[in-house]
Specification:
The protein contains four helices and seven strands. By secondary structure, it is an alpha/beta fold. The strands form two sheets. A four-stranded mixed sheet has the order 1-4-3-2, covered by helices on one side. The protein has a three-stranded mixed sheet with strand order 5-7-6. The radius of gyration is 18 Å and the shape is globular.
Length: 143
């Protein structure tokens, strides 16, 4: 039988101050903290995933490693981008609309549901709760 991957369970980031990292990600994305597990802190990402925050003494710079977070719509992407620039004085890492490095150098990109195919998102409860549905295009002039 072939292996079937259903998604990503978790991501891990390294920081020098886990408490400050929790505050940062809670403030910017409204992430809820979970209890237990490996690492200094766990943040819930949607219904099925989490981010583990590991505290280390020395950060090692990465070149292209990054992770992506999905928010509901372009308005929320703009809200995150504005907060990162105004409150945290962060500069975009590229010319993408919401691509940043957190205060510890972890690169993340923020997209919204319109950036992805909704087909793979539909099974997730948070998408169903958001009321997202497919609308069939009208076929004017056909019988």
């Amino acid at each position: 039988m072939a292996v079937q991957v259903y998604g990503c369970n978790h991501i891990v980031i390294e920081v020098t101050d886990a408490k400050k990292a929790v505050k940062f990600y809670s403030d910017v994305f409204g992430l809820k903290m979970l209890k237990g597990g490996e690492g200094a802190a766990w943040c819930k990402l949607g219904e099925h995933q989490f981010m583990a925050i590991f505290e280390v003494e020395t950060l090692q710079a990465d070149r292209v490693k990054h992770f992506g977070l999905m928010v509901r719509d372009a308005h929320q992407v703009k809200e995150v981008r504005s907060k990162l620039i105004a409150r945290y004085k962060l500069k975009p890492a590229s010319n993408l609309r919401c691509d940043f490095r957190d205060p510890w150098g972890n690169r993340f990109q923020v997209g919204d549901l319109s950036d992805e195919s909704l087909v793979w998102l539909l099974p997730y409860q948070e998408v169903q709760k958001a009321g997202i549905t497919f609308i069939k295009p009208s076929r004017k002039g056909t019988a």
